[in-house]
């Protein structure tokens, strides 16, 4: 699943009537500049909400650019769940360097998610795998103790647990409000700039 934040340029036709030739190209450039602003603002909102670095969040987003024949620009937020570990994962490229710092306790693992407060997973543990990958794990316990093997046996399989995903976080911030504001104000300014530039080049009315 992906969270999609979209700015549609279909309402720009009345502006495009003022331009000739490269008018739709100018509109596409305006849309793309607008969505770059949206991309940065959303990354900052997520960072403020979670305590995660803006740089890592930006790496986890992708801008699908508008073109002259397709006046729609889209920002998508990557789907990987956020790692919980005692320090940065060694394979951070896979997770864009995003992680919540966990703390091992006698009863499990606690971790803080920025302004959201703390999370806790009972019976979890922090460890580093042979591959070097770090994270929070739990053992898959059988419903009953197996003969000769306690329920806490190291031979039982383990599964990694994660924090919330970026799309989940984005639904809890002002992503829709940021996008609507961009359509109302930033997009118009960017389009006026592009049309003036086009007119100066002799490509506009």
Rg from alpha-carbon coordinates? 23 Å
How many independent structural domains? 2
The fraction of residues in strands falls at: 15-25%
Binned, the helix content reads 25-40%
Number of strands: 10
| Strand order, sheet with most strands | 4-5-6-7
Major sheet description: 4 strands, mixed
Q: What is the chain-wise order of helices and strands?
A: EHHHEEEHEEEEEEHH
Mean pLDDT: 80
Helical stretch count?
6
What is the terminal-to-terminal distance? 44 Å
- Shape, principal axes of CA atoms: elongated
Describe it:
The structure is a single chain. The protein is of the alpha+beta class and 205 residues long. The chain has 2 domains: 110 residues; 82 residues, no CATH class. Helices cover 36% and strands 24% of the residues. The longest helix has 28 residues. It is elongated and about 75 Å long.
